[in-house]
Amino acid sequence: MSPLFESALISAMLASTIRGTTPILLAALGEAYVERAGLLNLGIEGMMVAGAFSSFVVALNLNNLLCGFLTAAVVGLALGLLFGFLTITLRANQIVVGLGLTIFAHSMSSFLHRVIFGNQFPILFGAGGTHEIPLVSQIPVLGQALFNQHGLVYLTFLMVPLMHAGMYKTRFGLRIRAVGESPWAADAAGVSVDRIRYRAILLGGLMAGLGGAFLALGDLAFFVPDISMGRGYIAIVVVMLGKWNPLKVCCGALLFGMAMALTSTLQVTGIKISPDFILMTPYLVVIVTLLLFARSTNLPSSLCIPYERGQKGQ
Amino acid sequence: MRKTDFIILALLVLTSLAHHPALAGDPPKRVGMALPEAGTDKGWNEQGKVGLEIVAKKYGFPIELAEALGYGDIKPTLRDMVQRGCELIICHASGYQTAAPEIARETGVKVTTVENHKAITAGLVSDIDTQPQGGCYLAGWLAGKMTRSNTVGIVASAEPPTWNRMSAGFAQGLKASNPQCRLLYSVIGEAAYADAAGAKRNTNDQIAVGADVIFGLGDGASFGMLQACSTKKAKDGGKVWFIDVIGDKRSIDKADVLLSSVIMDMSVVYDEVIRSFMDGTFGKQHWVAMNNGAVYLMEPNQAVPGSVREELKTIRPKILSGEIQVVNWPASVDLHKFLDETFPR
Known about the structure:
The complex is a heterodimer.
Chain A: H1 7-36, H2 44-62, H3 65-89, H4 94-117, E1 131-132, H5 142-147, E2 148-149, H6 151-169, H7 171-181, H8 183-188, H9 193-220, H10 231-241, H11 246-269, H12 275-293
Antiparallel strand pairs in A: 1-2
Chain B: H1 3-18, E1 31-34, H2 44-59, E2 63-66, H3 75-83, E3 88-91, H4 99-107, E4 110-114, E5 125-131, H5 133-146, E6 151-156, H6 161-177, E7 182-187, H7 196-208, E8 213-217, H8 222-231, E9 241-246, E10 258-264, H9 266-279, E11 285-289, E12 295-297, H10 306-321, H11 332-342
Parallel strand pairs in B: 1-2, 1-3, 3-4, 4-5, 5-11, 6-7, 6-8, 8-9, 9-10
Antiparallel strand pairs in B: 10-12
Helix pairs in contact in B: 2-9, 3-4, 5-6, 5-10, 6-11, 7-8
């Protein structure tokens, strides 16, 4: 092993893993609920970019990070509502609406960035700060990597068991799963399919917006167009990898986050492998994992299918 | 002559006048420019846009700018530029190597490509390539003198020929300046030009193992590198210096970590292109290089000692005269081999 593989590098890699996993995990946890309810939200990438941009602008102007995160949540909710209106109420094609939303959010944030900042890229001082947890942060190697992170990182990982419980231990979770599997049966049982789907997509939008806000305010402290770099789509893959189970989704996101962190770490160690191959690692890991563990994946039966009461074939 | 015949004839005359090519000696009536990313990235795209604006002002032609086109099929955009009357289109990305010559052959409108020597066609396609390694040799020399830990890092957003030449030139200058130095090299992604988060991750890792000078090849991604250098301390608790490329980021360097930048002044090359258009020699190879003034090392940070500045001033003419032969490795395979030989691990 290279002498460069020292504790500081391992600690940096673990910290990168956690930090890189967080925005994907936030978006994926919300998307797990969305897909369980029978909606496929390809607009998640755009919601992340919109969340990143809006949070950054508000936090910069008000000099208040909390307002930035709240704005991202509101913007995520608004875009979720728009997606819901188009796909649930108007029954438009979910894939087309999702991609349209992503293109719209990308273009609009890029345009507004130009209008507001011109060719300047202001940095939000104070953003990206970490909160050290006493005692545990002193554990060698692991301490600083795991327990000296941004507040939203802790919150995100705390949400995993809560969202798992919400999915499998609550009436809301049961209704979400019922609506995604057989909406007509849920409807017959008195569950409002549209209302449940609206709630799911609002949750998904909120989480995606927060995921984007973490990129701009928690990780980078600035905004650049294309800040998300496909993390929204990765979140969708991670949801499928985790079979819509929040605990497994978390494992999938961590796996991808670690693979991404490794691409940098392996290169720094000077390992004699072509960078081209190292950079393939995250995607190879996902493909291999899908092949090994997701062969029996059963999509929610009504995924991507609009529901209309009494419609033939449902 | 019947009224309808007269109208048709008049329309034909007007149309032929509208499409009449510029006379020899005239600058193009309108110039199009296709950029893969926003022209505000303080890097390759912004330098291209600003360079063309300077030349447009000099020769008095309007610009048709299309930004953030990505690396997909840009042919519809180029056709649109042709319809809008562009007599020259500059496709400012190596990713447009296929589309640009195709449009030139299809429409007869002159185009300028990047890093596509084979496409050069007299009167139709000219090419711009970079020879920035001389400027990067100077940057490497500067890094070798400013490092305290004797560990310097290169973070590249991809491995196109320009980045590879720059990395090799930098490594050679570093070795000449400080033979004891260790060099780290990381690539963010296949085309991670805008991946600021990935850039920050790679830079953080290099800082973690002791790098205190980072040479960043990034476009939009370099914002992440600058951010990492601004927020992380080196192992000795001091600053982590950042050396940028192509553009000037001094206006956003609030932490004062920007050591210098290898600037590419694209207006120099675009001026050559427009002159070739005017004198009828269009369809040549143009170089972004030190010898025509298109590449130079930006005024270093105030923290750089006067003695080092003097050394840099002494080395520059040696590079220009060929006394110092700077390596030219555009292919990533050759670059990796060179790095392994120069800085064995």
